[in-house]
Amino acid sequence: MSAVAHDHDHGHDHEHVHHHKDTFITKYIFSIDHKMIAKQYLLTGIIMGVIGVGMSMLFRMQLAWPEESFKIFNILLGDKWAPNGVMANDIYLSLVTIHGTIMVFFVLTAGLSGTFSNLLIPLQIGARDMASGFMNMISYWLFFLSSVLMLCSLFVESGPANAGWTIYPPLSALPQAISGSGAGMTLWLVSMAVFIASSLMGSLNYVVTVINLRTKGMSMTRLPLTIWAFFVTAIIGIVSFPVLLSAALLLIFDRSFGTSFFLSDIYIAGEVLHYQGGSPVLFEHLFWFLGHPEVYIVILPALGITSEIIATNSRKPIFGYRAMIMSIIAIAFLSTIVWGHHMFISGMNPFLGSVFTFTTLLIAIPSAVKAFNYITTLWKGNLQMNPAMLFSIGLVSTFITGGLTGIILGDSTLDINVHDTYFVVAHFHLVMGISALYGMFAGIYHWFPKMFGRMLNKNLGYVHFWVTAICAYGVFFPMHFIGLAGLPRRYYTNTNFPLFDDLQNVNVLITTFALIGGAFQLVFLYNFFTSIFYGKKAVQNPWKSNTLEWTTPVEHLHGNWPGEIPEVHRWPYDYSNPGHDEDFVPQTVPMKEGEVILHH
C-alpha cells in the first residue's frame, strides 16, 4: 500500500519536447494535454446532456397531456413522428431509449470519468501528464465518434432504436420487429462498441498513470479520495465493459448474420422464423454484468469528488479516510456479483434469487459507511456554503434517499411487486442519475478556476442549486407513489387503463417540476459559458485547498509545473491542524519536528 513511484523525468523533459509552437489544431483539437482533453470531454458531455434532458422534456409532456397537440412536437419530430403535433407511440419509445443511453453513458460516464479523471489524476498525483497522451487523445475522439453515431441514429428514416436503453432481444435482435429495430438499432450497437473501446483505453491509461507516475512521497495512503475513486472506477470498467461489448457484437451477429445467440422459437405475424437454440435471458446476464457495475462507474467518481469538496469546505479532515478507501474497494467488488437483482422476474431459480438478494443488501454496508463519513465530516465543521458544497451535500441527500428504496428493490419478494413500474425509475434516477449529476456540478463549480482560470458567478450558482434540488425531488419523489400504485414504465399513455385515471394529476405535477428544472439548467449554461470569457480572474488557490493541483500556476502549461515537480510530505486532508497558523496545510509542506501525523 505504501509503495511510492518516484518521478523519474516522466515528463520526458517536457520543456525540450514542447518547445515548438502549438497550432490551433494541435492545441485545441488533437491535443495530448490531459487538461485540454478534460475540457473536450466536459463540453461534449454538456452538449449531449442538453440533448438528453431535452428529450426527457418532450416525453414528460406526452405523459402529462397525452393525445394533446403541441407545435414543438411537430417542429422537432416532423410530420412522420408527430402528425398534427401529436406524438406517435414509436417515437415516444425512441426518446426514452436514447435519453437513457445518452444520460447513462455519454453524460454521466464520460462527463464524470472522462472530465475529472483526465483533469485531476496527473495534477493530484504530481505527474506531468497521463501515461500515454496519444492514447488519451484517441480515447476522446472515439468517444466523440460514438456520440456522433448515436445522434445520427436519430435521423434514420425508420427511426432511432426504441427497445429501451437495455435493448433486450428479441425486439432489438429482429430488424422487422418494430420500426426502431432497423438501421437505428444497428447504429446504436455500433456507437456503443466504439464507446466501449474509448472507455477501455481511458481506463487503462488512468490505472497505469496512478500506479506508475506518482511523485516522490505520494504513497497510496496519501492519495486524495478523488484519485482512489477514479482509480477503482477505471478497474471496474476494465473488468465489466468487455462483457457488454461481447453482448453488442453477438446481437449484431443475430441481427445481420442469421445466428441464434439470443433468439429461439420466434413467431412474427404467424410466420415461424428459423431461429432456435438461443436465449434472450443470456443477453440479460451479459448486459447486467456491465449494467450494475455501470451504476458504480457513474456514482463512484461523484462520491470521490464529494469527499474532496466536503473536507475542503468543512475545513476539517475527512472522517475515516481508510474506511472510505475500503468502502470504495468493497463497493467495486460487490458491484460485480449483484447483477441478477435486475432479473428477479426472468424465471430465475428462487434460490439464486436469494443469493443475489443477499449480495445486494450487503452492498448497503459500504454505501452507508460513505454516507455516515460525509455526515460526520460535516458535523461541527466550519462550513463554507458555496455552490460546490451545496451540490455535494445535495448528493449525500439523494444518495441516502435513493439508496433506501434500493433495499426494497434488492429483495426478490418485494421487487416482484414494483418491478418495471415508476418506483424503479424513481429509485435509479435519485441514487444514480441525480446524485451523479450533483457530483458533476459540484466538480465543475470547484475546479472551474483550475480548468479555465476564472471564477463562476456564485449567486447564479445558488439559484441553479436550489431550483435544481427542489425540482429533482419534485420529479422523482412522487414517482415512488405512482410506482407503488402499479403504474408501468415505458407506456406512452395510460388513458386506456381506467385504473390509473386518478394518477394523471400526479403525472402533470411531475412534468411541471421537470419543465421548470430543465429550463433552469439554462442558468448554469449561461454562467458556464460567460464565465469562461468574462468571469472574475481566479487566484492560484481560491478554496485554500491542500491538494497538489492548486500548486500549479493559473496559466496552463503542458507539463503542469514549471521546473521541478513538488514533493509530497503529508496526506491531503490536513485542515484545522492545531500545530499550524493557517487552517490548511498543503501536501507539499514538510512535517515539523515532533509533529504527529493526524490522519486515518
Overall description:
With 600 residues, this protein is mostly helical. Helices cover 61% and strands 1% of the residues. It contains 17 helices and 2 strands. The chain has helices at residues 14-17, 24-29, 34-64, 71-81, 89-125, 133-152, 183-212, 225-256, 280-314, 321-335, 350-362, 364-378, 387-409, 412-418, 422-452, 458-484, 504-534; strands at residues 267-268, 271-272. A two-stranded antiparallel ribbon has the order 1-2. The two termini are 14 Å apart.
Q: What's a quick, concise take on this entry?
A:
The chain has helices at 14-17, 24-29, 34-64, 71-81, 89-125, 133-152, 183-212, 225-256, 280-314, 321-335, 350-362, 364-378, 387-409, 412-418, 422-452, 458-484, 504-534, and strands spanning 267-268, 271-272.
Task: List key phrases describing it.
17 helices, globular, disordered N terminus, mainly alpha, two-stranded antiparallel ribbon, 600 residues
Q: Give the termini separation.
A: 14 Å
Order of helices and strands: HHHHHHHHEEHHHHHHHHH
Helical content class: 55-70%
User: What's the pLDDT, averaged over the residues?
Assistant: 92
Q: Note the overall shape.
A: globular
Structural class: mainly alpha
The major pleated sheet works out as: 2 strands, antiparallel
Strand order of the largest sheet: 1-2
Please count the helical segments: 17
Low-confidence stretches: 1-19
**Beta-strand residue fraction:** under 5%
Give the beta-strand count: 2
